[in-house]
Design a protein that fits this description.
Length: about 260
């Protein structure tokens, strides 16, 4: 029992220490962000392309089929209550408030997050970050901040694209395959979705972008400089981001309600 208590205490202390270091790292990244935005915007634009444009294929494909599945499931359940015309409202609310931000964040972590973490971890393993420090160049400012800002900007854009493609997929399934009236499909959607729903989706996408990007650069920057260490950092990026996104999704939803 004494050993168990000691292990729990040590794990708690380590968690608090790591969480504190993570917060200081976040503040350090934020302190350099304005200089990179106004001083070297080209680096930020390049990372927006790497994190956003290179993720478009998986985002669009998954968005289309998620919307199609929502159209099928929504029609199947609403038809029991003679409310099949409301399938558009159901799909729109589900995509805008929940599935759009959450699924996009998980896909972002699996595609862009792992790329960021492994890239930075490899730079550390090959002493590129140490070489920058020897040349009086801050690796946090030059390497981490542009990648962090690129992910933060790309996430809301990817969520918007995912949601639009999802609505298109639901339209194809509900209107073209299941013969739902096209006017009722879009009218019910317009009547049901208000600005608060859109604001909730935008807030979630922005918060998830910060969390996913920050965790990716944090894990890469603190990876053990070996092949095994970089692999573990990449794995932790996906796992911790997924858990954080789902927890934050619950918290934001509870606050907005």
């Amino acid at each position: 029992m004494r050993t168990l208590i000691r292990d729990l205490y040590n794990n708690l202390v380590e968690f608090v220490r790591t969480f504190g270091a993570f917060q200081l790292f976040f503040l350090r990244v934020l302190s350099h962000a304005p200089q990179m935005v106004f001083g070297r915007p080209g680096l930020v634009v390049k990372q927006i392309y790497n994190a956003g444009a290179l993720s478009l294929v998986i985002i669009m494909v998954c968005g289309f089929f998620v919307g199609g599945v929502l159209g099928l499931q929504g029609y199947s359940n609403l038809a029991r209550f003679n409310a099949a015309d409301s399938v558009g409202a159901l799909v729109a609310l589900a995509l805008i408030k929940e599935l759009g931000p959450v699924i996009t964040a998980l896909l972002f972590a699996g595609r862009a997050g792992t790329a960021l973490s492994s890239e930075i971890g490899l730079m550390k393993a090959t002493d590129q970050l140490s070489a920058m420090e020897m040349m009086a160049v801050s690796p946090v400012k030059r390497v981490l901040v542009p990648r962090f800002l690129g992910g933060v900007v790309a996430m809301p854009l990817l969520v918007a694209i995912f949601t639009c493609i999802g609505l298109f997929g639901a339209h194809i399934v509900a209107v073209d395959l299941l013969s739902v009236d096209v006017g009722a499909f879009w009218q019910q959607m317009q009547l049901s979705v208000d600005m608060e729903d859109i604001q909730e989706g935008v807030l979630k996408s922005f918060v998830f972008g910060i969390v996913a990007s920050l965790l990716a650069v944090w894990e890469g920057y603190n990876a053990i400089p070996t092949a095994e260490g970089v692999g573990r950092a990449t794995t932790r990026t996906v796992v911790i981001t997924a858990i954080s996104v789902l927890i934050l999704d619950f918290m934001i939803t509870a606050v907005m309600l």
